[in-house]
Design goal:
GO terms for molecular function: DNA binding. This protein is α/β, with parallel strands linked by helices. It is 41% helix and 15% strand.
């Protein structure tokens, strides 16, 4: 089983004493330059990092979990974190919480900082920029437990807690079709975000099943920010044959989309019906109220943490990665309830 590289590993490989390794890493003057160079080179190749809590961990553990999310301002992530904290407290663990602000570089820094002996495992939702997974693969090689939630990384064989995004988007699209929409657009997230891609898959499945053509001009990807959602919505409205239904990858972006429609005096849902995902509190406040897919956020957090702690406490090495797919619920409100079409 993989484990975190120690000074003893370096000493054994180079056939020198642990004291020599320690002095070389601390750049002590009594170490020969060639020895220091050999030590530093091996430490880099083996991804050795000093464990600042190594001494105390001989007698006790940190009982701390690292949590990394894209944006704490999102109700979805805040709610999942509540579930994480509840389960962690129940199991006797505390949290170190960081956010990436959807930036890969910040995610990389957060992982590096938290992995230097402070945490025993990670619960992570990837940033929208994250494509290179080397920083997370290093955690795996060190034997540090890792659980993904919400945003997947298919190439990594680790535990994951997700929702049925394909099924959720299928139901959302079917709902718009049942309410008379003929041209349904999809406002997607970045190409790199698996959640968005899964929802796009559900959307296309529903269109095909009900005999609709897939119009690529109605599928637009963009970053997770309000300005981009407004820009995309204006593009869709300006099409010669504009959509009469709109599925938006998240509530936050749907607010931007609806503001763009209102600015153009386009009636919701009479002219364009809107459905989105996450069922944030704002869905019940805006006018019209927003139809959205609700996710079991507390359950996501609790389950991800339970799986992580089970792996941390697995002393026999029998733990196998678990993938859990949870169900969602479409909460229908005013933004999508067009007049029923007579058969």
């Amino acid at each position: 089983m993989a484990h975190q590289v120690t000074i003893k590993d370096l000493a054994r490989h180079l056939n020198v004493s642990v004291a020599t390794i320690s002095r070389a890493l601390r750049d002590m003057p009594e170490i020969k330059p060639e020895t220091r160079q050999a030590v530093l080179q091996l430490a880099k190749e083996w991804d050795y990092q000093p464990n600042i809590l190594a001494t105390s961990l001989v007698k006790s553990r940190t009982k701390t979990i690292g949590v990394i999310v894209p944006d704490l301002a999102y109700h979805f992530f805040a709610s999942v974190i509540k579930g994480i904290e509840e389960e962690a407290n129940e199991r006797g663990y505390s949290l170190l919480l960081t956010q990436t602000s959807e930036l890969y570089q910040r995610e990389l820094t957060n992982v590096q900082n938290l992995s230097r002996g402070q945490v025993e495992g990670f619960v992570i939702s990837l940033s929208q920029e994250t494509v290179d997974l080397d920083h997370l693969k290093r955690l795996q090689r060190k034997g540090i437990p890792l659980v993904f939630f919400d945003r997947d990384a298919a190439e990594m064989d680790v535990s994951k807690v997700m929702v049925d995004n394909v099924g959720a988007a299928y139901e959302a699209t079917k709902h718009l079709i049942d309410n008379g929409c003929k041209r349904i657009a999809f406002l997607a997230g970045p190409h790199s975000v698996t959640v968005s891609n899964q929802r796009l898959e559900g959307y296309t499945l529903a269109l095909k099943e009900f005999g609709y053509q897939i119009d690529e001009s109605l599928i637009v990807h963009g970053e997770y920010n309000l300005e981009r959602a407004i820009e995309i919505t204006n593009y869709l409205i300006n099409l010669e044959n504009r959509p009469d239904g709109l599925i938006v990858v998240s509530d936050r972006l749907a607010v931007g989309a609806m503001s763009a429609l209102k600015a153009r005096n386009i009636k919701i849902p009479e002219e364009v019906a809107v459905v989105s995902f996450n069922n944030e509190p704002i869905c019940t406040i805006i006018t019209p109220t927003l139809t959205s897919v609700a996710q079991p956020t507390l359950d996501i957090g609790k389950l991800a943490t339970s799986i992580l702690v089970n792996q941390i406490e697995d002393t026999k090495g029998f733990f196998k990665p678990e993938v859990k797919i949870l169900k969602t619920q479409l909460v229908v409100r005013e933004s999508s309830q067009k007049l029923k079409v007579e058969n």
